[in-house]
Specification:
mainly alpha; two-stranded antiparallel ribbon; 2 strands
Length: 212
């Protein structure tokens, strides 16, 4: 349950204003232009649109019919993009719920183990690293070998429609290209690995003190 909580925590951190602002301008699609289905070029305020998307995911508002600029009333996203963002928030919400439940499970089981047998408590956290490391190596290797396939499988698992298949000129793709998700997913895996390694290391240190 600890890795599930950590993944949910890191996923939440990567859908915040500071992270999206830090990412601005770091991808080729961040040129603030896109193309309509008719082939016409349009422009948008990257900072404004990205902030509105992130704020929607974090429940600060429920309006996805915002414009390309703050004073623009014409929706910058197509209907399919709006539907997909609604689905994304549902998935995001479920991840947060799973993370919260996992945290409660970690706390409850930790308390039981700690008061029942401290050695088993520390041994459990010492060995908790091994299963996540296999997950990290498998998913990380998949990312490196064929991220497009991993990206597709993820969407086929978590979404029951094809609304995630968007056009290259859509604003969602311009602001959140596949490379953005590759970087974000990789950061989550790295943070998960570091966190689990630290937990295992501290548990080992405690066991050494008990043995002494």
């Amino acid at each position: 349950m600890l890795p599930i909580f950590l993944v949910a925590l890191f996923a939440s951190l990567l859908t915040t204003r500071p992270y999206i602002n830090f990412s601005e301008g770091r991808y080729a699609t961040h040129d603030e232009t896109g193309t309509t289905p008719e082939g016409e070029t349009y422009t948008f305020d990257h900072t404004y649109v990205a902030t509105m998307l992130i704020d929607y995911l974090n429940y600060r508002h429920d309006d996805l019919h915002f414009g390309a600029f703050e004073d623009d009333d014409e929706p910058v996203m197509r209907d399919i993009e709006i539907r997909h963002m609604e689905d994304v928030r549902d998935v995001y919400t479920n991840i947060r719920i799973a993370g919260a439940i996992s945290l409660l499970g970690v706390i409850a089981s930790s308390l039981i183990l700690y008061f029942k047998n401290r050695r088993i408590f520390y041994e459990t956290f010492r060995d908790a690293f091994y299963l996540p490391v296999f997950f990290i190596l498998f998913v990380g290797g998949w990312f490196i070998i064929d991220f497009s396939a991993a990206f597709t499988v993820f969407h086929e698992i978590f979404f029951d429609n094809d609304d995630w298949i968007l056009r290259s000129g859509d604003v969602l793709i311009r602001i959140l290209p596949q490379t953005f998700w590759f970087v974000s997913g990789s950061i989550i895996l790295i943070l998960l690995g570091i966190s689990m390694a630290l937990v295992s290391f501290m548990a080992r240190k405690k066991l050494m003190r008990i043995d002494d």
